[in-house]
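quick one before i forget lol
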Amino acid sequence: MSLETPALLAPRDPAAPLAWHAGKPISAAQFLAEAKALAAALPSEGPAVNLCQDRYRFALGLAAALLRGHTSLMPPNALPQTLQRLRELGAEPYAFVDGDEVDAAGLARVPVQRLAVDARAEPVPAIDADLVAVCLLTSGSTGVPQPHAKRFGPLVRNIAAEAERLAQMMGKPSLQGLTLVATVPAQHSYGFESSVLLAMLGGAAFESGRPFYPADIVDSLQRVPRPRALVTTPFHLKTLLAAGVELPVVDLVLSATAPLSPQLAAEAEARLGGRLIEIYGCTEAGQVASRRTTEGEVWTALGELRLWQERAEDGSDRFLVEGGHVVEATPLADILELLDARRFRLLGRANDLIHVAGKRSSLAHLNFHLNRVPGVVDGAFWLPDEVADGVVRTVAFVVAPGLEPREVIAGLRERLEPAFVPRRVVLLPELPREATGKITTATLRELCARHLGGAAACTEDAASAANAANAAAAPAAREGEAQAHAFETVVDIAADHPAFDGHFPGQPVLPGVVLLTLVLQAVQAQPALHARLGATPTIEQVKFTAPVRPGARLHVQLTPDARGVGFALHEGAQAVARGRLLPG
């Protein structure tokens, strides 16, 4: 197979597992047979948008599209308005779906189902290296998705470089036999590259699910054989280690999307038993470098990549990468300290830099130290758009059960220059992170507007007093600011609730639809909110963040805003669900 026509799958035994589903292996031959059958049923023209939640069915859709020469679009989210905007890119896309509940926003639906096919060992099909295999879409400032095309040939070289580096760091000749369990969605570039593609093109195998809760992650790991790897993020890893569950041996832990602290990396290696490796990359260049965090802060470029620094037209310094799978010199969005053409330290994102009192730092650096404060479960800094008394002041949004704002500030004073110590700490039951563990700029700006009302200044003593008062008034939401016009209902979940039957044997969990029913019942009990939303409100967004067990006492909080009604459900200090309802 030449570089011009690389194979759809890396060389492997056709009978060896490419994927695992519910503890059962699916061979490479079976995968190819199912992908060919699906490809034959596709529309004559693409592109495709892959909405499959099951990782194996996502991979089937990807492979079928490649076999037909179709590009797979990967939007930043699956909201209906985002999917409808895909039409602006040109040809009408069709949507791969793996369930009737998937909202394809009016796009033609192509169900991806397991098929009974003849899984004979056959030659692996070749794919044109110049085919635009995927198009990653990021949200531009105008709201129009910005495309980043990825051709199949460079993708193959990208994954080959990653696989070679990971095998080397594990002390193995290849990734053959390694099974990947990923907490990251397949639609995200990191989850796509380091789970689906690392199996298809790197020689590993993957587990088909996307476990979220610690118990589900443990269960998924235990269902696959060793050697096994956990593909995750710092946020998910920290939650897993803090859950108090017994952890199985994991031979490799991959982490990306945000820098990992050496302390968390060392704890992960000690408790999981395998090496922890971080991947650094970006949408434009793909995967760029890796490091074993416990061995130091220096990153080493993958494959044939080379990095250098140059002066931009505006006089600022920028850093570029080229070589290997990066066929053209590509600027990076980060500030680096180059040690040579292949090794560097990561200092922070260029658009993440902030200036306070004549000093410069990055939000990533501040967040790193914030999350090292004892008792802090999660936290994020923000620099508000508005200033008070002519002075810009940082704000910290923090999840820290048992701590007061002054204790968080005292911990930060030991780690940060005085200029960057926040004047305001807002305590929250959770941070509204995305599935990858990231928290967006828009979300931080919204938090600031909601909890600070545009006022950036607040003394430490005032913050403590405000938080203490609100903690007494609303224990489910220790947010440091009173929730104006909020409504709260307390609901006890009976141990014999009928919804626990079948969800799941031996480990009962209240289904999400029941939680949403509780929210709607709480709305109906408030005439003003019921009139605001109408008889059939719509769900703009919802996220389930923790399981609800028999006997739980839930606080259902409703907060009207300019567009609808936000809702949050808590069990004690633990958030279990949140979202927003809009008028129907």
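fyi The first helix runs from residue 28 to 40.
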